[in-house]
Amino acid sequence: MVKQLPRIPHLRSFLQYQSRRHASTKPTHLTILNQDYPTDHKTNITPTIISKLPIRLHTQRSHPLSTIRSLIESHYPTFSHLSSFSPLVTPYQNFDSLAFPVDHPGRSVTDSYYINEGLMLRTHTSAHEVEVFAKGEDRWLLTADVYRRDEIDASHYPVFHQMEGARIFEASPSGMKEVEDDNARLASHLAKSNIVIEDIPHLSPTNPVQPLHDPKHSEAVALNLKLSLNSLLLELFGGVAGVSKEDPLRVRWIEAYFPFTSPSYEVEVFFRGKWLEILGCGVVAQSTLDSAKIANKLGWAFGLGLERMAMILFQIPDIRLFWSTDPRFLSQFSHGKITTFQPYSIHPANWKDVSFWLPHSEKQKATMHDNDFCDLVRDVVGDLVEDVKLVDQFTHPKTNRQSLCYRINYRSMDKPLTNAEVNDHQSRVKAQLKEQFRVEIR
Ligand code: PHE
Questions:
Q1: How many Cβ atoms sit within 10 Å of the Cβ of residue 150?
Q2: Mean pLDDT of 168-191
Q3: Ligand 1 pocket member 280 (CB < 6 A)
Q4: Are 319 and 391 members of one domain?
């Protein structure tokens, strides 16, 4: 079944509050996961997003995302497997506790969903690092739904799933012995396997050891991180990729930057002719462990995108499919098994353009962020939208008014759309645009 407009009470007034011009009609409270929250000037969470919060695909047995989660969890049998953390977090948890600068773009209302100034939807599973370390967990995996405002295409969806993994060791001779023993075990396993790793130095001037770390400890931990992830990737990709001596699995490590790890890396896997970015990771910033009141320890963390991994392993071509409740999708999968998805229909694309003038006043030049447009379209037509592109933009030289033209691709994954249906969706998008942003359709 195709997801249509979510059935949320007071949808109309809800949508109205988003109109900056109708600020007075903004509801004072929103009900989210059965609890009431006050709204304020930062509120930008949409009905579509609210409707996704209870779904938790990563916990639905035999769903591809849940299978990927289980496979990774069984690769780390001695780790705690966590998956019940609320998606509502404070900006402190999501950003400050991880040393994000105050002007980081991820904090803006155009990039993240806010319930109000003090509460947002987590944009990554790292938001829980401090609280999990603070519980005393020293090896854990945490799987969760994460939310980011983004463009619309076959590989972007405002909700996706991540798994965070972390392991910390005593910063002592016995702790380092534990790391070295584990490194020896992992290295001997990998040496016997059909995997080629393009490595980089653990530390470099552009990817430095943290000031409070002994470089020897940091290198041993970084090596443990690399060996541990290489062996995970070998297990996940080795089986399905037809990996052999002649055609080994290729993995490459790249320097990266995250405010909450140093050194930091990204990992890519060569799969079906392309290098694909799979995860980010690094040696945990000491400030994270300090906030968790963990002394004399150091360790690593990684964050891995489950959709990205599942799209590759199951050959799922469109990210919207993960949300499908069509039995032709769901019945293809059984728990714990990676199988190749058989597309049951590819229906024609339906492109429609909408051009409009943004409202204009002497004082203020109106603007609209692409993500505002995308959220509006999702609220009106749900998952029937496959792709949205800004195709034209200009400012009238005399009136100074701004004109935008967006091209929307309507395509159902389940059935062909009739012209009448597409036209109806397009008119509802136009009506909502007029109501919410006071635009003048051209
Ligand atoms: N949270 C990061 C992201 O979403 C990934 C990451 C996790 C990087 C843990 C380093 C350590 O991109």
A1: 16
A2: 96
A3: yes
A4: no
Exposed (0-12), middle (13-18) or buried (19+): which is 42, by Cβ within 10 Å? middle
pLDDT of residue 40 exceeding 90, the answer is: yes
- Residue 409 has, within 13 A of its CA and on its CB side, a CA count of 15
pLDDT above 90 (res 230): yes
Task: Please say if the pLDDT value at position 23 is more than 70.
Answer: no
- Tally of domains in the chain: 2
Q: Quick one: 333 and 209 in the same domain?
A: yes
Q: Are residues 75 and 207 in the same domain?
A: yes
Whether ligand 1 lies within 6 angstroms of the CB of 302 is answered as: yes
In angstroms, what is the span from residue 281 Cα to ligand 1's centroid?
6
| Contact predicate 278/304, CB 8 Å | yes
358 lies in which domain range? Answer: 350-441
Integer Cα distance of 163 and 398 in angstroms: 52
- Check if the beta carbon of residue 400 is closer than 8 Å to that of residue 317: no
Is 126 near ligand 1, meaning CB less than 6 Å away? yes
Q: How far is CA 405 from the centre of its chain?
A: 28
Q: 417 alpha carbon to ligand 1 midpoint, in Å? A: 39
Query: Is the beta carbon of 64 within 6 A of some atom in ligand 1?
Result: no
CA of 401 to the centre of ligand 1 (A): 41
Its pTM stands at 0.90
> Chain-wide mean pLDDT for the chain?
92
263 Cβ inside 6 Å of ligand 1: no
125 or 361: which leads in pLDDT: 125
Instruction: Tell me, in angstroms, the distance from the centre of ligand 1 to residue 255's CA.
Output: 13
Rounded to whole angstroms, the Cα distance separating 337 from 68 reads: 9
* Mean pLDDT of all residues in 429-434: 96
Where residue 419 sits, what CATH number does that domain have?
A: 3.30.70.380
Inside any domain, residue 115: no
Per-residue pLDDT band at 3 (split at 50, 70, 90): very low
